[in-house]
Amino acid sequence: MISEKMQKVLNKQVQAEMYSANLYLAMSSYCDFKGLKGFANWLRVQYQEETAHALLLLDYVKERGGKVEVLQIEAPAVEFGTMTEVFKTVLKHEQHVTGLINGLYEVAIQEKDFAAQIFLQWFVNEQVEEEANATDILGKLEVIGDSGVNVLYLDKELSTRVFVPPSISNAN
Ligand code: FEO
């Protein structure tokens, strides 16, 4: 059984992950509209990852005998600017999510919920990867700029990303 406080923050994180999913879906659609199908693909995979994160958290609440509360999700923006601006937003958003995950971990420590601490370690590691991925693409964009043929090369590279469903058991 999880504490009321742990349950509340986990449910809020499900909401945050679903917001992330919608944010990336909106960005993906934006890139698609701009004709950058590879960027759109990368962000659509990101949408799938975020949905999977939400479900991992939701299933964990259920597994621990907690009560799932599906909360309202704010609509994301529609316009995201240049590809550099898109990835600046991605990185900033992931840094924000890292703060949320760290906050959850802190609650798990305060509540002396050792099982939740172990569960959340996967998310702590995942955030390192999330930030590194965004930083990597942003770095490339800063080198090649926002227009010209090099963007198309990067678009081609990003078109190869494939969604691999995460699971806590195979990730540790
Ligand atoms: Fe679910 Fe991008 O962190």
TrEMBL record:
It is found in: Cytoplasm. Its main location: cytoplasm. It catalyses: 4 Fe(2+) + O2 + 6 H2O = 4 iron(III) oxide-hydroxide + 12 H(+). Fe cation binds at residues 17, 50, 53, 94, 127. Residues 1-145 form the Ferritin-like diiron domain. Keywords: Cytoplasm, Iron, Iron storage, Metal-binding, Oxidoreductase. One of its GO terms (cellular component) is cytosol. Belongs to the ferritin family. Prokaryotic subfamily. This is Ferritin. The lineage of its organism: Bacteria, Bacillati, Bacillota, Negativicutes, Selenomonadales.
